[in-house]
């Protein structure tokens, strides 16, 4: 169950980073509230996950989910353009996240 909480925490990481962009520097109150709520939920689920998971595994996976998710959202929602080399590194990051999980033995 801890891994599920960690994935949820990572997804909320994507939520708050996306809504922070949409808040336009916290000038749009609704998106600012969504950012704060997303951040709080991300931290809450991370805190629950690291009760059972080692921090040395949970934290990089949490940030990796947030990073890869934010890249994907940036491309889809905001039209960010990434070079082929950047995509290679995003894929390597995803492979690293999966590798950390697989090699952890948890």
TrEMBL record:
It comes from the Bacteria. Keywords: Cell membrane, Membrane, Transmembrane, Transmembrane helix, Transport. GO terms for cellular component: plasma membrane. InterPro entries: EmrE-like (IPR037185), Small_drug/metabolite_transptr (IPR000390), Small_multidrug_res (IPR045324). GO terms for molecular function: transmembrane transporter activity. The chain crosses the membrane at residues 33-50, 57-79, 85-103. It is found in: Cell membrane. It is a multi-pass membrane protein. PANTHER family: GUANIDINIUM EXPORTER, SMR FAMILY PROTON-DEPENDENT DRUG EFFLUX TRANSPORTER SUGE. Belongs to the drug/metabolite transporter (DMT) superfamily. Small multidrug resistance (SMR) (TC 2.A.7.1) family. This is QacE family quaternary ammonium compound efflux SMR transporter. It comes from Companilactobacillus alimentarius DSM 20249.
